[in-house]
Amino acid sequence: MSGDAHVDDPAGTSPPRVSIEDLTKYYGQTLVLDEVFLDVAHHEVVCLIGASGSGKSTLLRCINQLVPFDYGTIRLDGVPIDDASFGKTGLRKRIGIVFQAYNLFPHMNVLENVTLAPRKVHGAERRAAEANAHRLLELLGMSAFADKYPEQLSGGQQQRVAIVRALATDPDVLLLDEVTAALDPELIGGVLDVIRDLKAQGMTMVIVTHEMGFAREVADRVCFLEEGRIIEQGPPSQLLVDPEQPQTRRFLQRIIDAGRL
Prior knowledge:
Strand order of the largest sheet: 6-7-8-3-9-10
Number of helices: 9
Helix content: 25-40%
Distance between the termini: 33 Å
Order of helices and strands: EEEHEEHEHHHEHEHEEHH
Largest sheet: 6 strands, mixed
Radius of gyration: 18 Å
C-alpha cells in the first residue's frame, strides 16, 4: 500500500492531493453544501466535525462522485474528477471510501469481498489480487479470517475488512464516514488503531467523525461544518480547545456537556 502514486514535491509546487472549490449541492430545494472550499495536502489527515445534517457525509460522497453536485470543482492532483482521463473506474480506484455500514457481501468470504473490485472492476489477475489481499489482511490483524463470512465476524472485524477492501485498490486518498458509529464501545478502539496506523504510513485521509478525542489525536486539521458551510478550520490543538467562531464554541460545548470531549 503506497497511498501515493505520485512523486511528492518538497518545494510545495505540486497541487494539493484534493482541491475543492465553490462546491454547492442541493437535494431538491434544500441546500446541503454551500460554496465549500477545502484543500487536502499529500499525507494530510482532515477530520470533518459538526452536527448531523451539516453536510459532512455529502461532502465525502461528492469527492469520489458517489453523489453528483450542482456547482463547483473537485480536483485530484490538479485534475478535475470528471475528467475523461479517469475513465469509468479510475477515480474509484484512487479514492477509496468506507462507510459506517460495512456493506460486505454476505455470500462472499472475506478474501472474496476484498478481491472483488480489484479483479472484476480494475482487471487485476486473481493471484496478484489475492496476494495483495492477504498482505493487507495481515497488516490489519485479519489474516486468520480470510475464509470467514461476514456473519461469522464481529462488527469491529467487519469494519476492518471494509477498510481492507477500500485499501485493496491502493488508493491515493481514503474517505472514512463515521466508521465507528455502528460499533459497540469496546470495538471502537481496534478500528481507531487501524486508522492511526494508516496515518503513520502516510495515507491521505478525510474523516467524518463524532469521536472528538480521536480527531484531536489523529487529525492534522479539523473542519467544523454547519448548514453546509465550513465555518472554521484549524489544527485540533486550536479548534477543539479555543475556537474563534461562536457556532464552533456552541457545538463543542454540547459535546463537552455530553461527556464526549
